[in-house]
Write a structure and sequence with these properties.
1 helix; two-stranded antiparallel sheet; about 25% helix
Length: about 90
């Protein structure tokens, strides 16, 4: 009878230990953060170092000396012959 009680107690203790480890090791499912799909334009950009050298360089020299009052074109804009680029205030 003593052996039955001892084996019964050991069996209950073993089941309790296994249940405790089983509950401890049960992991909750992994949750992932998701996004809804959307349409957009993809812009490809490249970052590089170096120099930009123009194919053709034009030097502009006025016929009179003075101070520039207004500039009518942006840097890099295309101009044609006869286009007004800037106005010069003549200083004596």
């Amino acid at each position: 009878m003593k052996k039955t009680i001892i084996f019964g107690a050991l069996g209950v203790a073993l089941i309790a230990v296994l249940a405790w480890f089983g509950a401890k090791n049960s992991k909750s499912p992994i949750e992932y953060e998701t996004e809804n799909p959307f349409k957009t334009n993809i812009v490809r950009k490249t970052v590089a170092t170096g120099k930009v050298i123009p194919l053709e360089e034009v030097e502009i020299k006025p016929k009179v000396s003075g101070i520039i009052d207004n500039i009518y074109v942006e840097e890099g804009a295309k101009v044609k012959v006869g286009d007004l680029i800037a106005t010069i205030r003549v200083v004596p």
